[in-house]
Amino acid sequence: MIRVENLWKKFGRFDALHGLSFDVPDGSAFALIGANGAGKTTTIKILMNILEPTRGSATLLAVDSRKISPRELRQIGYVSENQDMPSRLTVEEYVAYLRPFYPTWDRDLEASIARQLRLPLERRIGDLSHGMRLKMALMCALPYRPKLLILDEPFSGLDPLVRDEFMEGLLEQAGEMTILISSHELGEIDGVATYVAFLDEGQLLFQESMSDLTGRFREVHVTLEIEAARPAQAPKEWLEMRALGNVLTFVDTRFDENGLSERIRARIEGVRGIDAEPMALRSIFTALARAARDGRT
Amino acid sequence: MSERQEEMVWHIFKKDWKLLWVFVITVASLHWISAFIIFKLGLFGESAMLEMLAEAVPMLSFFASMFLIAAIVHVEAIPGVRQDWLVRPIRRENLLLEKFLFVVLMVEGPIFAANLFQGLANGFSLRSTLLSATSYVIFLLFFLVLPLFAFASVTRNMTEAFIFGCGCTFILGVFLTLGDYVNGSAHGTLIAVTHSGVGWIGEVFRFALVAIAAAMILGLQYFRRRTATARFLVIAFGLLLLASQFLPWKSAFGIEQRLSPKPAAGARTVMRFDPARGKFKSPSGLVPSSENVQRHRGEDSAEVFLPLQVTGVRNDAILLTDRVEVQVIGQDRRIVYHGIGDSLEVARQGPNPAEEPVYQQIAVPMSVYHRAKDQAVEVRLNYSLTLFGLAGSYAIPALDGDERMPEWGWCQTKMNEAGTAVELHCMEPRKGPICGTAFIENASTGVRNPARSVCRSDYSPYGYHPLPDSLVRFGTNLPFRDPSGLAKFPVDGPQLPQSRIVIRVYEPEDHFTRALTIPEIKLKDWEAQ
User: Fold this and answer.
1) Handedness of CA A256, A262, A268, A271 (dihedral sign)
2) What's CA A218's distance to the chain center, in Å?
3) Out of A48, A70, A71, whose CB is closest to B90?
4) Mean pLDDT of B496-513
């Protein structure tokens, strides 16, 4: 559905993207994760042909992003935290304005989304709160049943209640559509994303399915007979190693239940017990981000 | 364009109307108020308050239109990355067409309506009013709408447009100042076409540039969103427009020559140096100094008057100089002065007109004069001339006259407040006459006062003035009494009730050039006496 290859973007002397490459499979919910300034929004703007890449290419719906035409845009829904809509029109007027541009616009679906998101249709867009505007942007992106939905930081600044309403509205209509969602809040994509890519300073650190990612990460606690110390030659896949009393803790990024005990005992002597706990997404990303910062990935 | 595309254009149009109708109505109202004020002012403009409003309101409505054009474009701004319309399946050509239509209908439409009102309310025919209003909005399209449309498309919002506009105005100011300085240093020989009779050729050239620039900039912006390149083009074309004031005179006048309505009419015109006429005698007798110092183009200059004989101008014709290029060449064959001489007018009116002496006045910079005044120099005069022929003659009562005259327009006459002259004020819905003479004539005796010429150099095939509207207003004062008592007029106050104003309309017939070389003269010999 989306293919990004060796994408570069320069703003003056600043490189916002350094040879970014990733693929978004059809039907997936792909999360683009990274801190502020990592290059998520720039990537999305290039995909939508709002910005032009300095080098490389981005393809969506089998069309180069620079050549996106109204035909492709009719199949793409786009929601951004900072989307400028005509503030003097009411929600209803703007939705009515958009309808004729989309031959597949479903008015029943539109009504149902409006109800579900509890949007005040008669209110001017300029008078809407930030959360309401995001909900409105979502409402303007779903009724034509796009094949691809691109959400750029959709939860930014939303209170939990609105966020839940937004997510409910989104998930209910998701169906077969491919979703690309960017966020710096990991909790937001938990339970939504099926694939994840991690961006740091315009570079992709990894791209993986969510199940593989959560499956291969474990927080491992090794209880020793003596006082714990960091082993002299720890493998690269063990991150955030720390010793407290006789317990050595680390994050195993290549977790394999069958060979774990042997691998640990081969490197550490006096192992009394091993306990491997699944990790929350947030913890996985924190560990990865720190490793990236320290140049260990 | 398909029916579906047409529908989408009008669909966007209706959305813009919803967003901007208050602004559109406000600006339209300003234009209509302005038209009403000018209409109420009438031909003589006797109300000081209305006169003041007639100056300010058209200007205000003009500026409001400029802001409205920017606002229309900024509804779907091109620069920027946050606009919702960028991610909607809107065809760019539909959007561009809609913006153009909206600007034309909502900015030019009310102006057109105001001009129709002006023409019809002032009693002009529907046809001539429609023609003048249409040509006026076409002129505004190139003069105002397209440049601003293109300019607004490279800015994101009104603040950015204002800042960028201020920058451009600054560049404009610097360029004009420099241009003026350079032209002054060249004694006015560089900026020749602007403000001359062939100024319209420069104007058409600029309109063509504006059309090309607008097409390029709007194409770049609406189809490619290349704001940086488009901004560069705005500046580049802006400078090119400014540079167009240096359009060479010979090329422009050459075009005008080819457009002469009667190309051979001036063939018999001969100009020659006629020293037998003697020195120019100042009518006031107040030019005794041998170095009659004048300020000319910012520098001290000495006035030299060369006597000429102009023959071959038939009766009921006027010969006007469009430009006189002067070269003074020293004994070493080097050009000591290259500048522009003063305009001449040779009029042959009536059955047996007396031949008036003609002097070519030249303002020679004082530094040059001091160096060359005692030398024998050669003076070369290159004339660009226009011959006007009588096209019509009209009469209107000298007091409280009210006549509509074809080729001249609607005129009224009245005595001025001081009781010394008859005021003749006229209005025309088209370009207006470019040359005419008017004099007071006693209808019963045939005695007449000296004629006043109201000729202006403007050979454009259309009228081009941005303010206040499509009507041309012109007039003259015809004195019949000198309060000092020095001058006596054949037709004086008591004769006015049985007198009329005779207006003679002249139309250009031929544009041609004449070169005159005066081999050996001393400049000091030809100062005024």
Assistant:
1) positive
2) 21
3) A70
4) 94
Q: Is 90 exceeded by the pLDDT of residue B387?
A: yes
State the number of CA atoms in the 13 A half-sphere of B120 facing the CB.
Answer: 10
- What is the average pLDDT value for chain A, to the nearest integer? 89
- Give pLDDT tens digits for B358-367: 999 999 988 8
* C-alpha A217 chain-centroid distance: 18
Q: Summarize pLDDT for B295-332 with one digit per residue, the tens.
A: 555 568 888 999 999 999 988 899 999 999 999 999 88
Which two three-digit tokens encode residue B189? 């020989």
Name which of A60, A71, A80, A193 is nearest A140 in CA terms.
Answer: A80
Residue B283's pLDDT is what?
62
Among the listed residues B386, B91, B136, the one whose alpha carbon sits nearest the alpha carbon of residue B256: B386
Q: How far apart are CA B104 and CA B468, in angstroms?
A: 18
Pairing verdict, β B270-273 and B299-311: antiparallel
CA distances from B218 to A81, B226, B227 (A): 29, 10, 10
Provide the token pair at A26: 């059809």
Nearest chain B alpha carbon to A103: B89
Residue in this structure with the two tokens 């403009």, named with its chain if needed: B45
CA distance A26 to chain B (A): 21
Contact B84 A102 (CB under 8 A): no
Put simply, the answer to whether B15 touches A85 (Cβ < 8 Å) is no
Instruction: Determine the Cα–Cα distance for residues B479 and B492; give it in Å rounded to an integer.
Output: 9
CB A134, CB A117: distance < 8 Å = no
Among candidate residues A203, A207, A284, the one with its CA nearest the CA of residue A37? A203
Count CB-CB contacts under 10 A for residue A91.
24
Query: Residues of B near A (CB-CB distance < 8 A)?
Result: 7-8, 11, 15, 18-19, 75, 80-84, 86-91
φ, ψ for residue B55, nearest 5 deg = -85, -45
- Distance from the Cα of residue A34 to its chain's centroid: 8
Helices B92-103 and B48-75: crossing angle in degrees, nearest 10, is 170
Closest Cα of chain B to A123: distance in Å?
15
Tell me the residue type at B411. Answer: C
Q: Are A73 and B88 in contact (CB under 8 A)?
A: yes
ipTM over 0.90: no
Name beta bridge partners: B323. B384
Q: Flag if A70 and B91 touch (Cβ within 8 Å).
A: yes
Integer angstrom CA distances of residue B330 from B303, B335, B369, B370, B431? 18, 6, 12, 13, 45
pLDDT band at B117 (very low <50, low <70, confident <90, very high): very high
Q: How far is CA A136 from the centre of its chain?
A: 21
pLDDT value at position B4?
Answer: 86
Q: How far is A190 from chain B (nearest CA, A)?
A: 27
Which residue of A41, A66, A101, A139 to mutate against B (max B Cβ within 10 Å)?
A101
Q: How far apart are CA B352 and CA B113, in angstroms?
A: 49
Query: What is the reported pLDDT for A297?
Result: 54
User: What pLDDT is stored for residue A206 in this prediction?
Assistant: 83
Q: With an 8 Å Cβ cutoff, is A11 touching chain B?
A: no
Residue B386: is its pLDDT beyond 60? yes
The domain locations on chain A are 2-210, 218-278
A86 contacts in chain B (CB < 8 Å): 15, 19, 75, 84
Helix (H, G, I), strand (E, B) or coil at A159: coil
Ranges A64-68, B56-60, B213-217, B431-435: which has the least confidence: B431-435
Classify domain A2-210 at the CATH superfamily level.
Answer: P-loop containing nucleotide triphosphate hydrolases (3.40.50.300)
Q: Tell me the average pLDDT of chain B.
A: 90
- Strands lying side by side in the sheet with A218-224: A238-244, A247-252, A218-224, A271-278
Instruction: Please report which confidence band the pLDDT of residue A236 belongs to, taking 50, 70 and 90 as the band edges.
Output: confident
Give B19's contacts in chain A (Cβ within 8 Å). 86, 88-89
